[in-house]
Amino acid sequence: MTLADLFRRTFTERRGEVGLEWQGSSLTFGEIDERANRVAGELTARGLRPGDRLAVQLPNGPELIDLFLACARTGIIFVPVNLLYRSREIDHILRDSTPAALVARGQVETTAPVEVWNVADLIAAGARRPSEPPRPTPVADDPEQVVTIVYTSGTTGPSKGAMLTQRSLVANARALLEAWRIRSDDRLLLPLPLFHVHGLGNGLHCWLGAGCRLRLLERFDRVAIEHELLDFAPTVFFGVPTMYVRLLEIAPDAARRIGAMARLFVSGSAPLDPATFAAFLERFGHAILERYGMTEALMITSNPYDGPRLPGTVGLPLPGVHVRLVDDEGHDVGPDTDGEVLVKSRALFAGYWRQPDATRAAFDGSFFRTGDLARRSATGHYALCGRKSDLIISGGFNIYPREIEEVLREHPGVADVAVAGAADPVRGEMPVAYVVPAGADPACDATALEAFCQARLASFKVPRAFIPVTELPRNALGKVEKHRLPRAVRSGPAR
Question: Whole-prediction pTM value?
Answer without folding.
Answer: 0.86
